Amino acid sequence: MDYLGQDRRRNERGFSTIQLIVTLAVVSIVIGFALVNVSSARASLRLQNSVRLLGGYMEKARLDAVRRHDTASVVFTNTSTYNITMDFDGDGVVQTRSFSFDDGVSVISTPLPSVSFNWRGRTSACTITFAMQGSNGDQSWVDVSDAGDVTVNSSVDTLPTPSYTNVNASADIYSNMVVAGATVRNNTADCGGSGGGTPPPIVGSGSGGCTVTATPSSISIKKSGGTTGTVAISVSSSSTVTASGPSNLLISPVSRSIGGGGSGNFSITSKNNTRGTFAVTFSSACTSVTVLVKVTN
Predict the structure, then answer these.
(1) Hey, what domains does the chain have and what are their CATH numbers?
(2) What DSSP element (H or E) covers 7?
(3) According to the 3-state scheme, what is the secondary structure of 154-167?
(4) Can you name the residues that pair with 215 across neighbouring β-strands?
(5) What is the per-residue pLDDT for 31?
């Protein structure tokens, strides 16, 4: 018998159906991963492009305010569009123009942030953070300090750690004139709030007299898990309360059942370096309340 010929004919048949299916499946998986990576990379580029354009326009508005000895402003009208009021053409005529982020990019700071520069290029508030997020969940931010400094993805609150040199008293240097120092300058110390104490609770009302109460109505936590804040939620009638917020905040638990007249605690922690004030909403079957979470250094 011609066994050699039979083997040759089998080999000439090529791939079997199962082999083709397996090969196509592997190719599909590889292409799928590639498309996901490309999509994520494009989303990150759109985010960084939008952030740096915003930072650049803020610098231009600040310089325009100083040049004209007047004011210039950047005001968000919604989560993806902002208005800039300044002299764009250098002809002394102030105009307001509208600009939009790239697709999928939105500001997540609450409330919608804005900044106004005075004739010295300074602002009337302490550091203002414009936190933004892309369609892939990446986050970035622009900081504007009270001195008008604009930075992207870095903090303008805390200055770099300086090095100190010991100086010995001599005929020309008196020991009582040497100032000791060991701490890092933190500009947030100049930004004290109005009074202390715990913010009051906030109450949401729904149909049939249903209420949901959050205590306190706002909290402050440190970035990257530095501290954890706690919000107590009370309900007038038994309900499952669900919490939702931006992706830079870890809320635990995400939902919990609370009996009528009872309460339950939710903990909130920052997951990354994104700072600013963000809204966390607690929803029941009939109503909801929003707590403001300020993430600081």
Answers:
(1) 39-152 (3.55.40.10), 202-296 (2.60.40.10)
(2) helix 3-12
(3) CCCCECCCCCCCCC
(4) 232
(5) 76
Strand partners, 143: 129, 151
Largest CA distance in the chain: 114
Q: DSSP letter string over 32-88?
A: HHHHHHHHHHHHHHHHHHHHHHHHHHHHHHHHHHHHHTS-EEEEEEETTEEEEEE-S
CA-based torsion, 15, 16, 20, 23: positive or negative: negative
Q: Is the pTM of this model over 0.85?
A: no
Predicted confidence at residue 181, as pLDDT, reads: 54
Rounded Cα–Cα distance for residues 238 and 253 (Å): 17
Please give the Cα distance from 99 to 87 (Å, whole number). 15
**Unique residue bearing structure tokens 């397996």:** 22
Task: Judge whether 40 and 34 are in contact, CB under 8 Å.
Answer: no
Residue whose entry in the numeric block shows the structure tokens 């609150």:
157
By the 8 A CB rule, do 177 and 195 touch? no
Q: Is 16 left (phi over 0), alpha (psi -120 to 50) or beta?
A: beta
Q: Which amino acid is at 242?
A: T
Report the pLDDT value the prediction gives residue 116, as an integer from 0 to 100: 94
What are residue 172's phi and psi, to 5 degrees? -100, -15
CA dist., res. 9 & res. 3, Å (int): 10
Of residues 150, 152, 115, 147, the one with CA closest to residue 132? 152
86: its two tokens: 């300044």
DSSP β-ladder status, 288-296 and 218-222: parallel
Spatial CA neighbour of 132 closest among 161, 151, 105, 153: 105
pLDDT reported for residue 40 = 81
Low-confidence ranges of the chain (pLDDT < 70): 1-15, 35-36, 155-197
- Rounded to the nearest 5 degrees, what angle is found at the Cα of 264, between the Cα atoms of 271 and 281? 50
User: Is the peptide bond prior to 246 cis by the omega test (within 30 degrees of 0)?
Assistant: no
